[in-house]
Amino acid sequence: MEKIDFFEKFNTFQIYYKQLLKDNIYDNGNLASYIRTYYIENNKILFHVSEILDLSVIVPKGNFDMYQKKFSEKVFATSNPYEIWLYACRAVLGEMHEKNRVCIYPDNPFLFFETGYYYLKRSVAVYVLNAEDFFPVLKLKSHFIENKNCFDNEWIANHNINPLYQYTIDRIPKEFTKYYDVYYLNNKSNVVYPNSLEELRYFRKNNMVRKIE
Question: ∠ CA(7), CA(13), CA(19), 5° rounding?
Answer without folding.
Answer: 145
